[in-house]
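Weekly sync, protein design subgroup
Attendees: M.S., D.O., the rotation student, P.L. (late)

Item 1: inverse folding check
M.S. brought a backbone from last month's batch and wanted to see whether the design step gives back something sensible before we order anything. D.O. pointed out we never logged the input encoding, so this time it goes straight into the notes. Structure tokens as presented (227 positions):
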């Protein structure tokens, strides 16, 4: 079993996307990683705006930002090695978002923060969103990100509205989101070390090519998570 087939099987994506298409996307992203250089402006790698959080940790309106940006140096050891990895992850996310033609994409790593074990957002493209998703059963009850982070099984939602009407739980910070794909990042032993999350304002966006790009990103991004 090759790496692509093994990942798709472990993540619960077998039969949903052609392995050869995933492999092609992975190969392109590996070339992107190899060509990435650390930018001169390093602060942008560590800081990003986040929305205010409401009662129970729910997001406020997207345009209501917290007064201070999130600082990844709270959870990462700053230095050249980390900066290189963050630069690569940002390049990978940017290319994947463009090639998959989706509205939002982020890569998260499972780490211990001040509030406990959580998924920490390392790189993203799109509107500001929360930085940490607690890795707890309580939070997973309404968060796909946390659910995937705990189970290692991908979750695809073709129609967010229908999902909610049918009783499905959903953590929603942006009412424009109509479909979502959340995939695990798995190490060589099959352990969950992070996730990636894609969102779009169109229904049923995450099939075929967009899903192949996300799976390709999952295979490459896991190699560039900070230590």
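Designed sequence read out in the meeting:
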């Amino acid at each position: 079993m090759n790496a692509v087939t093994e990942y798709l099987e472990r993540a619960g994506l077998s039969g949903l996307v052609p392995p050869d298409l995933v492999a092609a996307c992975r190969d392109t992203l590996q070339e992107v990683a190899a060509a990435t250089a650390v930018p001169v402006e390093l602060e942008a790698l560590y800081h990003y705006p986040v929305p205010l959080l409401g009662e129970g940790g729910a997001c406020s309106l997207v345009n209501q930002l917290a007064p201070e940006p999130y600082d990844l140096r709270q959870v990462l050891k700053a230095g050249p090695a980390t900066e290189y990895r963050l630069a690569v992850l940002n390049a990978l996310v940017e290319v994947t978002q463009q090639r998959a033609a989706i509205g939002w994409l982020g890569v998260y790593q499972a780490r211990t923060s001040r509030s406990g074990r959580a998924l920490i957002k390392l790189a993203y493209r799109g509107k500001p969103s929360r930085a940490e998703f607690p890795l707890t059963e309580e939070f997973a009850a309404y968060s796909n990100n946390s659910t995937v982070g705990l189970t290692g099984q991908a979750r695809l939602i073709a129609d967010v509205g229908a999902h909610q009407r049918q009783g499905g739980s959903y953590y929603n910070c942006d009412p424009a989101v109509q479909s979502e794909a959340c995939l695990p990042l798995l190490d060589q032993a099959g352990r969950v070390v992070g996730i990636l999350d894609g969102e779009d304002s169109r229904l049923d966006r995450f099939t075929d090519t967009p899903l192949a790009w996300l799976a390709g990103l999952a295979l490459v991004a896991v190699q560039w998570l900070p230590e």
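Discussion: The longest helix spans residues 80-100. The longest strand covers residues 104-113.
Action: P.L. to compare against the previous round before Friday.
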